[in-house]
Amino acid sequence: MNERLGDYLERAGQVLIDVLHEFGGAWLFMGKVIRIYRKTSGYGRPIIAQVAEVSMRTMSTVIFAGVFVGAILVLQFDAMLRRFDAQALLGGLNTSATIREVGPLIISFLLAGKIGAYTTAELASMRVTEQIDAVESLGTDPIQYLIIPRFFGIVLSSVILLSIGLFVSVAGAVLVAQSFSGMNVYQYIASIPRFAGAWTLFEGLVRSTLFSTIVATISTFKGYTASGGARGVGKAVTQSAIYINIYIVLANFISTSLLEWIHDFVYWVINLVGALK
Questions:
Q1: In the chain, what percentage of residues exceed pLDDT 90?
Q2: What is the pLDDT of residue 217?
Q3: What whole-number distance in Å separates Cα of residue 268 and Cα of residue 259?
Q4: Are 62 and 107 in contact (CB under 8 A)?
């Protein structure tokens, strides 16, 4: 029994070490990408091309998922609020949860599977077939030529797609609330300002940017550092998907705590200033 427990603890410790090692490597890689980007120029057209390519490839998936994210949340909230005769709060609670938490999280998972896996596989294939080495042999920095357009293209397109997905989620929630919950559209919309305001939109934007940066960093890092032939490509894609999801969950927890603290601090400062006047 003790030996088995020791094995479990050893495996858990090794998993934690691997996660932290990958996090450190990805952090250094992102820092290197940003440094090179700041020291060089001429990325406008390649980044725009990447944004267009990624957006067009993923738009349908995000819209489809966004509709059902909003619809599912409406049905869940409606079932709970009916018990307390509080359906008037459905629009505000559902919109706030969608924009602040559930929407960015679920849509980011979808982007990780679609954009992240594709980018990792593309770069890993270039690495194992020595195309990246060929770029280096020609005197060109592969990070400057291959990584930076993809990195910033993924970040920008992911933020755009997340914003569209959140808008579609809210619109889908309105339709479902009217069709299945028998709620008036105007009553639904009227309750939104009580729970979702400028700060809610700010939280959604921060999380969307943070999650998209994680997708861009991990997918380009794992693809760029892949090795081991065709098996190495598959391993890189698998690890990319796993680590992206792990880091998104951790980032969601940390950002939630930090944003709540910032919100409370700002509210306290505003009240203090008001009291001093």
A1: 3
A2: 92
A3: 14
A4: yes
Q: Quick check: is 115 in a domain?
A: yes
Q: Are 106 and 71 in contact (CB under 8 A)?
A: no
Per-residue pLDDT for 1 more than 60? no
Number of H-type helices and E-type strands within the chain: 12, 0
Within-domain flag for 28: no
The verdict on residue 7 lying in a domain is no
Task: Measure the N-to-C terminal CA separation of the chain; round to a whole number of Å.
Answer: 67
Q: Give the predicted TM-score (pTM) of the model.
A: 0.86
The number of distinct structural domains making up the chain is 1
Residue among 129, 130, 111, 131 nearest 119 (CA): 111
**Cβ atoms of residues 183 and 194 within 8 Å:** no
Is residue 31 assigned to a domain? no
Residue that has been written with the tokens 């700010």 in this structure:
202
pLDDT at 39 over 70: yes
Domain interval for residue 164: 43-276
Distance CA 35, CA 46 (A): 18
Once rounded to an integer, what is the mean pLDDT over residues 98-104? 78
Q: Could you give the CA distance from residue 220 to residue 150 in angstroms, rounded to a whole number?
A: 8
